[in-house]
Amino acid sequence: MAEEVTRVMVAVNESSMKGYPHPSISSKGAFEWTINKIVRNNVSAFNLLFLHVQVPDEDGFNDMDSIYASPDDFKNMNQRDRIRGVHLLEYFVNRCHEIGVVCQAWIMKGDPKEVICHEVKRLRPDLLVVGSRGLGPFQKVFVGTVSEFCWKHAECPVISIKRKPDETPQDPVDD
Amino acid sequence: MAEEVTRVMVAVNESSMKGYPHPSISSKGAFEWTINKIVRNNVSAFNLLFLHVQVPDEDGFNDMDSIYASPDDFKNMNQRDRIRGVHLLEYFVNRCHEIGVVCQAWIMKGDPKEVICHEVKRLRPDLLVVGSRGLGPFQKVFVGTVSEFCWKHAECPVISIKRKPDETPQDPVDD
User: Fold this and answer.
1) Chain B residues with CB inside 8 Å of A159's CB?
2) Residues paired with B51 in a beta bridge
3) Which of residues 87-116 of B touch A (CB under 8 A)?
4) Which CATH class, in words, describes the domain spanning A6-167?
5) Residue A126 in contact with partner chain B when CB distance is under 8 A
6) Per-domain residue ranges for chain B?
């Protein structure tokens, strides 16, 4: 049987409804599925790698209250984003600690689908797990889906875990 | 932690080069990956379900030597196909027996991608594993890919396992 641990990368993001530090429904579901169906009680055989990709805030829509008057203001904003991301990762790292599975977690900035595939290339996990909102073809045209891009382009096997029907919010684009 | 076993359906087919009873490179690879990376030594926590879908032989190309003169001839042909399929499944069932993981295996006839999705619906496995030849977009136009269809339509999480580059035959459509 395999001697090395199985390294599972899990891409996670924040809830679009509750915001940081709450994980999205689909990333929480993907994590729980991985623990319940794959890792199970064989905790010493798996390492989990949590990647959170932050999308640079292009139009500053979420920062209407902020005034940027100096380079320090931007530094502070970046610092604040980072801290929010760390709190999101804390949720997953704490869960792993409870369960007893070794993990690591880190934050990157950029286009999530591109960054995830790049990190797969760099770190060569055995498996990539991504949550999926399970959108229909019509909805996908407008929002794009990270899971489909990763399935096609990531250089490792990919599982996408769809949300359960009873977890889907009123607007299925929310997560 | 989960009490029930994790049920993994693995779709398998015969080698296009060596024919029955040899498994295709990609289905052998998908099986070995599942054992090495997911099941590992936690054999009692998993059940494997091997599904082999036989494509009805439309033009009789593989049966040039046969003469069909009575209904019994067709019965015999069906019987022979079945036996070939059983020998393919024997390979996987024997491997599971060696490893100590509980499994079951069965044969269906029809369009593999449709039948696989139908069987997922019927049996509700936790995970479907399919091998993939890893063909480029140009090659796919001509041969279609079961893995992509299943990824989109199967009602459970799907992993497709691409062949290793050093296992790819001269003609990548072969398997």
Assistant:
1) 127, 157-159
2) B11, B106
3) none
4) alpha beta
5) yes
6) 6-167
